[in-house]
Design brief:
CATH class of the largest domain: Alpha Beta
CATH architecture of the largest domain: 3-Layer(aba) Sandwich
Number of domains: 2
CATH superfamily of the largest domain: Type I PLP-dependent aspartate aminotransferase-like (Major domain)
Number of helices: 8
Distance between the termini: 37 Å
Strand order of the largest sheet: 1-2-3-4
Order of helices and strands: HEHEHEEHHHEEHEH
Structural class: alpha/beta
């Protein structure tokens, strides 16, 4: 990133999901945040778009990721106007009907308010009021997200426990056990992802399409599968996980036998 941004004026920006990133669930280290803030872009109008979509989406109360404030770090590095931060309650209250947030420097906020002033007559203040009355303050929001965690933990455990029990040591797949967010990223043997997804579908388990997280859905290795455990019940998730590991084993054997 540094090489491209600092040397190519055609590179105008980067979009990041710094916390519980979709799909891997990783969070940026302090060093990574500081290096983003210290970029010296060749393009004068280069921007960092910091999509903090999962900022409060912890699965565990006693084991959670926290990241540095990119606004503070940009200011320290002499780049106060280089970042826009986005967040929303889309995955907190109502998808598509929540409240969105943008944060940046005073200069950038002044600029974006001018643009928004001609884009809309006024925001949905009734919806804003609904959210304020329901959450009340940051403590109310965090208490609400604890309930999310309680709902989701057993579903994630149904997947990760089955993966660990059935696939550990076989060298036919790797995965990340996230501390938050909504996805589990699984990497199969190269050339197996589409086969696994198809086998699961034939057995009644529908997965996100193989390679869905890649540009245009084209995974050059055909190995990545994004697992989304949030919708099914915990019991359904346990059954689906058993089907998934069986299909991983079948697809892997077929690939290995190809030689």
């Amino acid at each position: 990133v540094e090489q491209y941004v600092n040397n190519d004026p055609a590179v105008k920006g980067i979009w990041c999901v710094p916390k519980y990133s979709n799909p891997t669930g990783i969070s940026y280290s302090d060093e990574t945040v500081k290096r983003f803030a210290a970029l010296k872009p060749a393009a004068e109008d280069f921007m960092i778009y910091w999509d903090n979509a999962y900022c409060v989406h912890h699965l565990y109360e006693d084991d959670r990721d926290e990241i540095l404030n990119i606004l503070d770090e940009c200011k320290k590095a002499g780049n106060p106007d280089m970042v826009f931060i986005f967040a929303s309650t889309s995955k907190i209250s109502f998808p598509g009907s929540g409240v969105s947030v943008v944060a940046s420097s005073l200069n950038n906020v002044s600029w974006i308010l001018k643009l928004m002033g001609v884009q809309t007559i006024g925001h949905d203040k009734i919806n804003q009021l609904r959210h304020v009355r329901f959450f009340k303050d940051i403590n109310g929001l965090m208490e609400h997200m604890k309930k999310h965690g309680e709902l989701l933990r057993p579903k994630f455990a149904a997947v990760t426990d089955t993966l660990e029990k059935e696939l550990t040591g076989l060298e036919i797949g790797s995965w990340v056990k996230p501390k938050g967010g909504y996805f589990i990223s699984f990497d199969a043997l190269p050339g197996c992802a589409k086969s696994i997804v198809a086998k699961c579908k034939a057995l009644g388990v529908t997965l996100t399409g193989a390679g869905a997280t890649y540009p245009y859905g084209k995974d050059p290795l055909d190995s990545n599968i994004r697992i989304a455990p949030t919708f099914p019940s915990t019991e359904e998730m346990k059954d689906a996980a058993r089907v998934f590991v069986l299909c991983v084993k079948l697809a892997s054997v077929e690939k290995l036998l190809e030689g």
